Amino acid sequence: MFTYLADTTDTAYTWATGIVGVIVLIIGLALLVLLVAAVISTLMHKDTTAGGKLLWIILEVWWPLLGSVAWFVVGRKGYLNRFLGISKSRSRHSAPSVGQHSNVSVNNQEGLGHA
What we know:
Elements: H1 2-44, H2 50-62, H3 64-75, H4 79-84, H5 106-111
Helix pairs in contact: 1-2, 1-3, 2-3
């Protein structure tokens, strides 16, 4: 009786270990695909400088999940890159400033409807 109980426990443990192993393998492969996609996307991005690409790739390799998700969420859009100064085009997407220390002329402000 004890040998039967031991045999069924070993079989259940083997099945559970196999299922957990397959799940871990699938998660690991998904993380690897995400990492490779992020690194390729980083290398192909035209608006990021070479130093900026290096920084993003270091972040992606050091923390694969966090770095890859951060690249796809904020890195590709360029907001963080412009803030950090690693973008090639700093003012392409930003609106002109109309504050006190602005380079926008008074005539241009009047043309925009500002008094």
